[in-house]
Each structure stands twice: as C-alpha cells, then as structure tokens.
Amino acid sequence: MAYQRRGPFSRQSELVARVRALAETLCDDRLLARAELAAARVARWSQELDASERALARAMDAARRSGDVETEAGCARNLAANAFRAGDAEGFERHLRHALEAARRSGRPSDEVNALNGLGWLHADRGETDEARRTLESALELATRTRIPGLVALCHGSLSATMLRAERFEAAERHATAAIEAYESLGYLRQWALEHLVRAEARLWADDLAGAHEDADAALERARFLGLKAPLARALGIRGKVAFFEQDFGAARDALERAASQLAGSPEAARLWSY
C-alpha cells in the first residue's frame, strides 16, 4: 500500500477500507494487521487520534495472531506517535521501548533505527544530552549499514538538533551539513530547509556570521516557496540576529519585526528578541 500524508485523506481512507474488507474475506490476519496500521496512520494525519488508537489496537491484535513482528513494531511506533501528539510522555517512551524490542525480534534494521531515533529525541528533550548522543549515534551507525538515505538523513538531523541544543556547535554544523546533502539528493524540500536553519544557528553562535546569513537566506527562500510559516519566522529571526551582531541595527529590527509578525500571538515571538 502506498499513500501520502499530504492528503486528500478521504481517498486514502477508501483505499484502506477496501484492503481491510479483502483481508477479512480472505481471513488473512497479516494483511488485516497492515490494513489497520495504514488506517491508523491516515486517521492520525487527519487529526483523528481516537480513531487511530482503535485501528492500532485492531492492528496489534491481528499482528500478534499472525506472528507479524514487523507490523507489531510499526504499531508500537505509531502508538508512540499518538502519545506524543496527546502530550503523554510516559506513553511515548513505553511504546518506543516496545517498538525497539519488537524491532530487535523482527531483525529488520529500519525498525530499530526509527525506534532508537525516537528514544534519542526523548533523551534530548529531557536534557540527557550524553545519553541522547549515544542513542542517536547508534541509530546513525545502523542506518548507515542499511544504506537507506532517508534513514541516514533522519539520524543526522536528530543529531544536529541535539548537538545544537547542547551548544556543541561544530558537531551540530557537521551533522546538519550531512543531513542537508542527503535531503537535497532525496528532494525533501521541507527537511532541507529545516536543516539549513539548524546549521544557521550553529554558525551564528560559532561567530560565522557569513555562513549563518547564507543558510538563513537558503531556508527563507524555501520556506516562502513552501508556505512554511514557522520556518519562515525562524529564518527571519536568524537574519535579524546576524544583522544585530554586524551592528546593522536597522536591518536587525526590520527582520525581527517581520519574524514577530509571522508569530503574532505565539509565545515563540518573545524568543526572537533574546540573544
């Protein structure tokens, strides 16, 4: 089954329902598990978390009945994604650890990479920087062995954000550069822009103002093209800070005010004025 998270979701729901009906007719629990997992993803992308949870429960039951450990791991990852959206940190961790355990039973490296990446993000969010780095480096090592470019880019991106948060700017720049190159080759425009923002911030705080300006401009152009409001504001904010450190205070104020207008009413706007 191939489907995209961009929508339209009604058409995707119809396709999933047809596969589910076929699986029930054939009494094929393995196919049923995968159909319900697909239904759960579509429901989550449609912001229907309750429907997603119900589909995941059915998917997990069918996966276990059929011994489909790969789908079990996928169900656990999607339960973690639902918990994250619901603000359930404890559930997020519990489901990720289930996903990791199932991935290791299945022997499919991509499942293990995704679970480790999620756990690395969790450690970083808790401020457990060293544990986050170790977990994400393990994910990157495994992703590199799979030779799946999207997984390698994902892990570099997680490491770039983690190292930026830890103020390890050289490492953040190195991983962001690797992610940018990978996302460019894949044509993933949104992720490419976001990694330019990470590299821009790393370069800004490492006093590479020219590099920060260049990255912010690249992200700004792509964010405008894609209509990405938050990345656009972030790019403008970085340009304003670069101008401030260059003592071009008029340009700094202009860029920061434009960034703030993009985030009107959001708590993020206040952060634009901190240096």
Describe this structure in words.
This protein has 14 helices and no strands. It is mainly α and 275 residues long. α2 (29-45) runs parallel beside α4 (69-85) and α5 runs antiparallel to α6.
Outline the secondary-structure elements:
Layout: H1 9-26, H2 29-45, H3 49-66, H4 69-85, H5 89-106, H6 109-125, H7 129-146, H8 149-165, H9 169-186, H10 189-205, H11 209-226, H12 229-245, H13 249-262, H14 268-271
Key traits:
about 280 residues, mainly alpha, Serine Threonine Protein Phosphatase 5, Tetratricopeptide repeat, 3 domains, 14 helices
Total number of domains: 3
Low-pLDDT windows of residues: 1-7
Mean pLDDT reading: 90
Shape: elongated
Q: How would you name the oligomeric state of the polypeptide chains in this document?
A: single chain
Report, as a whole number of angstroms, the end-to-end distance: 48 Å
Tell me the series of helices and strands, N- to C-terminal.
Answer: HHHHHHHHHHHHHH
Q: Radius of gyration over alpha carbons?
A: 21 Å
Largest sheet: none
Q: Tell me the strand percentage band.
A: under 5%
Sheet/helix structural class:
mainly alpha
Number of strands: 0
Count of helical stretches: 14
Question: Percent range for helical residues?
Answer: over 70%
Quick structural gist:
The chain is mostly helical and 275 residues long. The chain is 83% helix and 0% strand. It has 14 helices and no strands.
